[in-house]
Please model this.
Amino acid sequence: MRAWIFIAVAIVVLPLVVRPVIASEIWIFAIFGLGLNLLLGYTGLLSFGQSTFFGSAAYVAGWLLKHYGINVFFALGIGVGVGALSALVVGYLCVQRSGLYFIMLTFALNQLFYFVAYQWTTVTGGEDGMQGVPRPALGGLDFSNPLLYYAFVSALFLASLYIMRRVVESPLGRILQAIRENELRAEAVGYNVPRFKLLAFVIGGAFSGLAGVLYAMLFGIVPLEAISFVFSGNVVFATLIGGSGSLYGPIIGSFVFIWLSESMSTVWARWPLLLGVAFVIVVLFFRGGVVEAWNRLWRFSRQKTSANPSAR
Amino acid sequence: MAILQTKNLGKSFGALSAVRDVSLSIAEGSLHSIIGPNGAGKTTLFNLLTGTFPPTAGQILLDGKDITGAPAHRIAHLGLARSFQRTNVFPAFSLLENVWVAAFATGPSWKGLVYKSTRNYPQAAERARQALADVGLASKQDHLAREISHGEQRQLELAIALAAAPRVLLLDEPAAGLSPEETRRMVALVRALKGRYTIVLIEHKIDIIMSVSDRISVMHFGSLIAEGAPEEIQRNPEVRRAYLGGIAA
Model:
């Protein structure tokens, strides 16, 4: 409950602090992170190919928006569908392997999709990206107003968070964690492990797809980077910094990552160095990311006050 | 009436044949032990029975139906549950969550798998609590599996198998690494389960085997060398030779 209040306050305050475009990007990236974290945090699968689903959905929905002027909800539905479907195909191939081979497969298939997008310039625009993706109005709501679009993105983010919470608190969520904890035993008690991993992929892919379409409509372009390994890496990065062990970790990660990249990149071209430092600190000292750092700080301050009752 | 049967079961890893021509028949409701020196192929036999890997020869029958080559997760649904020789639990889960995962797997319905809260499956929860109570861990249900003692982890190992409400229980050295006191408790536990389940037991400690088994099969170098009631096995010269090497021969 406290977390929801926190998020509600953040949604209201954020556009007052940063430009609405960046505020929207934060929540979009958070949706992307939620999808990855079902794989990374809950199932223990490091997917280095999440932009495959993000980019594919953005291209397909972007194309339809641009040439057929489809309705916003239809575009989002298409995005979710394309994200899930591409994740079904990629996931099917990847879950056959584990460990390092799994990671390399997600990466290699990402590269495959990237080069298709790179070469197929008539559709994707190649290196120039798919330009001129419109942001059509919905009913009476004119989304060319950035604040209105921000509200729309925020609402979808809240819906995504609610759905993801239902998923991780369902039997599926617990089974995925059981697979992370002990794959052999999960199989022995009666779960078809590759099938469950695939299901995690598909759900994660649907979230990535939703984020991809929102991203395309936000910037009016699908850049080639949206399907590149850099984007896949960014979401892993952000999720780990935020904390992959918690439902809310990727949200905090998205906040830190987007805020840093947008505010620092204009000031200092070498800003990724800061991210690198943050990452090293997380890996060395706070495996649970910002969420764990916060929890430790909280416990530390509580201990101090309780260890010293006479001071009160 | 045999509930579980193998016919000429074999498994080779390259040139090594770990299990050779094993024909077993486990009577329903009995406690059937499999003994043999280290490396005799007992655990490999369990891995074959539970579908961890497929056999290279022979057949496995459950209730007369051929289940040879079925994968592990399907075997679990057919009513075969195992415990492992080396503790194999879900470390970051509470004890109740450990057994709940097993109870849910073979539970009556997976309806609501992706959206219903785990709290809304009363049957799985009830079965999970019962399994913990059966092994005497009910009072520790909220402890994490990685934080309890080795002896308790062995009990949990057993509870996970029980939570599946199996028809045949395969126990792979439940007393491995236990102190004498803990061993006594584990033996009492196995004895209490006897009759409620058909049990196949692998064990090293001969005194345990002799006191609880209805029937004993002896494995040596991957083959069955003897089978019979505990008294017969105790007297069998070939068994003595296998256990004591050349000395007694």
